[in-house]
Amino acid sequence: MPVMTEARPTFRTGLLAALPIVAGYVPIAFSFGVAATRAGLTGAEAVMLSLVVYAGASQFLAIALFTGGAPVLVAAFTLIAMNLRHVLYGPALMKAAGAGASRRHAWVWAWGLTDEVFGQALGALARGQRFSEAYMFGLGLAAYAAWVLGTAVGAMAGAGALESWPALNAGLGFMLTALFLALLLSILSRRAVSAIVIAAAATVAGTLVWSGTAGILAGMICGALAGVVRK
Predict the structure, then answer these.
(1) Burial per residue of 41-78, b for 16 or more beta-carbon CB atoms within 10 angstroms, e otherwise
(2) What digits encode the pLDDT tens for the residues 38-76?
(3) Phi, psi of 36 (to 5 degrees)
(4) CB of 159 within 8 A of CB of 38?
(5) Burial class of 28 by CB neighbour count within 10 A (0 to 12, 13 to 18, 19+)
(6) 191 in Cβ contact with 230 (< 8 Å)
(7) Deepest of 46, 89, 134, 145, by most Cβ within 10 A of its Cβ?
(8) What pTM was estimated for this model as a whole?
(9) What is the DSSP string of 22-35?
(10) Residue whose C-alpha is closest to residue 45's, from 21, 22, 78, 67
């Protein structure tokens, strides 16, 4: 059981803790900006997607759906289903923070709970850090700013920015996954094993019964639910 430190982390502490996320987000967002302009979106439209949607891999999926001629309702349902796991991040984090944790401004900072921000915050609590809304604002704001800035730079670079670097273009697609895996391994414990096993089983079952996409969605949702309800 981790021992809680006395001082509550500050906004600046959150900004500093977000540096690994920022380092991962900027190149991925750059890649998204390039991909968006390649698909026919303007720079302003690409940045607006990152400002409003702010969903990492889902934004790449949105481009594929829209350019592929998918109906708006189908595209919207697919993106919502893919991101349902985010609804569970806030409750899971507050459960780990304890009953005395402040929730006054949760309606603001919870919007920035991406996979990586959630992983970083949960890891800090697992290492004994006290929960702080100021820390959550610093952590979330730095990650959000990095994603939007990277998108803007990529959109300005244009559709052909990565054509001369095929290996780099392919590698960027795995950076978000690698970053989240690193954060996950940093907080791996026996208590988390059950949730991981459930997520893996749901992923395999969904893939075999339906499709790879369905398997990923099933794994994310079942794993998040298992993490919330485990004691």
Answers:
(1) bebeebbebbeeebbbbbbbbbbebeeeeeeeeebeeb
(2) 888 899 999 999 999 898 878 887 887 777 777 778 778
(3) -65, -45
(4) yes
(5) buried
(6) yes
(7) 46
(8) 0.74
(9) HHHHHHHHHHHHHH
(10) 67
pLDDT digits (tens, 9 = 90+) for 176-215: 566 666 656 665 666 677 777 888 898 889 888 887 667 7
Instruction: Tell me the C-alpha to C-alpha distance, in Å, between residue 32 and each of 36, 61, 68, 72.
Output: 6, 10, 17, 20
pLDDT at 13: 96
Residue 183's CB is within 10 A of a number of other CB atoms, namely 21
Q: Which long-range contacts (CB under 8 A, 24 or more apart) does 89-97 make?
A: 89/113, 89/118, 89/224, 91/228, 92/118, 92/122, 92/224, 92/227, 92/228, 93/118, 93/121, 93/122, 93/125, 95/228, 96/122, 96/125, 96/126, 97/125, 97/131
Highest mean pLDDT among 42-51, 75-84, 139-148: 139-148
| Residues whose CB falls within 8 Å of the CB of residue 209, separated by 6 or more in sequence, listed in order | none
Contact 155, 37 (CB under 8 A): yes
pLDDT in tens, 11-32: 999 999 999 999 889 988 998 8
Token couple for 8 = 């509550």
